[in-house]
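Box 3.1. Reading complex inputs
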Amino acid sequence: MLNTIVEIYSTYSHEYTSGLLTTLEVSLLALVASLALGTLVALLCISPFRLLVFIGRAYVEFIRNTPLLIQIFFFYFGLPGLGIEINSFAAGTLGLTIYTAAFISEAIRAGIQSISKGQMEAARSSGLSYVQAMRYVILPQAFRIVIPPLGNQFINLVKNSAILGVIAGMDLMYHADIVATSTFHTFETYILVAAFYLLLTVPLSILVNLLERRMRVGHR
Amino acid sequence: MDFAGAYSAANLRFLLEGFLVTLEVAAIAIILSFIFAVIIGVIRYMKIPVLSQAMFVCVETIRNLPLILIIFFVYFALPDIGIKLEVFSAAIAALTIFEAAMISEIVRSGLQSVDKGQIEAARSSGMSYMQTLRHIVLPQALRRMAPPMVSQFISLLKDTSLAIIITLEDVMHNGQIIYNTHTNYIIPILLIIALMYFVVNFSLSLVAKRLEQAR
């Protein structure tokens, strides 16, 4: 079995490398975009305006409680029906962003709410506007607390990006499929692709664990 | 887009039939993964030598892999080494493997959250280790585990949709059959499927919230 794995790797290494790069690219793009969107939604959820809170909550609850696959299908198969042509890479990145942002916004909201109310009051009474207080006092502190859960979301994002394989997203999973059908060594091909995913996710997991431990020590 | 046409009685019934398969697969996988998760969680909590380390490696490996890979693996790769499962069992097996690993972590941290002093007190009042586990640690830990466990069940129900790649005849699959013949039904059908998932999952999340408050 090991011989077959080595043989598959030496023949198809370019497939794996190109898949790995696409997986990384999609994950990083979606991470940056969902951080921005997630922060925005979190701010909606804690804003003093009821309508904004409702919009934020509705987004979070609807997205969190429906499968990611439906969201990606919506962008990939649904948008063309509205006259918007979109390739699998863009549809996948968009779907992952919308989905991940809902979870990230919850993490950020919890982080913001864990900052004591006195901080906001002090900032406001020292003359900062609500937006300035958020930007210079609350958010910088909240982001530190939020880093470990964000790390977990990034791991989930890398794993979830494998769904791109279903819509021909040229990622690791998609290339694994090509290799499996051309070698007929399905078992060995998937062992190899699993190793590639672990290469991405395990170091991230260890990092998140370390950060979590450090945060706990810092809190004491 | 044609909402009226897409939501014909026949289509809705077809989607509901698919959703029942989704719920069935999810329910079986929830029960199985809960059982395995408790076994794995207790083994790791009790630090049973060798077994505990082996479980650690398995759990970490599975947790760090995409579920879709595990589904593919169970359905397409296992036959290579002589294990052939039909679609329905393959979907349940893959979901169970993945979720048992996730839930076992919830069980382990739930058990670890019970104060050590209580265990010492129970042991010194004459209870055996197993009695302490059963009467003191587990009841408290289970209550703490309930909210994250329900969240994990919500994930599991959503994840069932991935079994479409091995042609499980679930709600996603039936939806695809409908909109493959009527392309202007795609958005209405995806919306109604999303709504079905939402109704069940949102209710579950309300239960989780209630459990959290009751703590």
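In summary: Residues 2-45 of chain A form the longest helix (44 residues).
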